[in-house]
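Dear colleague,

Thank you for sharing your sequence with our group. We've completed the structure prediction you requested, and as agreed, I am returning the results in plain text so they can be pasted directly into your records. Please verify that the sequence below matches your submission; if there's any discrepancy, let me know and we will rerun it promptly.
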Amino acid sequence: MNIDIIIFQWIHGLVGASVFIDYLGVFLARYFPFALVGMLVALSVRSTRWKLITFEAIVAALIARFGVVTIIRMLVQRTRPFVDEAFQALIAADPDELYGSFPSGHASFFFALSMVVWMHNKRLGYYLFGGSILMGVSRIFVGVHWPSDILAGALIGIGVAYFVHVVWKRKLE
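Please find the predicted structure tokens below.
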């Protein structure tokens, strides 16, 4: 059996075990990303330095999500788990996104944000990475992504953020 399916079934298999866990999974998959962005925006109010970091993070996240992920999705038409496994996902899916599973746009966006922050402030970066991991696992839990979608999105986000950071740093020198 495919390792992607085994991990998916293990995580998604927790659905229905507890109403609290189901609600937590939905919250982390759907609403928690707003809290992560809100944290970054709140930091940008602190100083000009954090405004620049926030801008760099958003640029990296947008390139990862709407550049790299979009190109890959044009080449790879992977269906979402709830389509392949024929079940009702815990969060409503956009009918236009039934084949937009690989790579995860959410993971690419939030791991890019996390990486940029981590390169400037390790402690805060670890918190953002932790939040991004929770969000990614919850998207598997609710049934809208395969584990490899999240992993690929995370790697894309981290890679793009690193590239943007290097280019950004050269421009400022």
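Summary note from our side: Residues 32-81+100-172 form a domain with the Vanadium-containing Chloroperoxidase; domain 1 fold (CATH 1.20.144.10).

Kind regards,
the structure core
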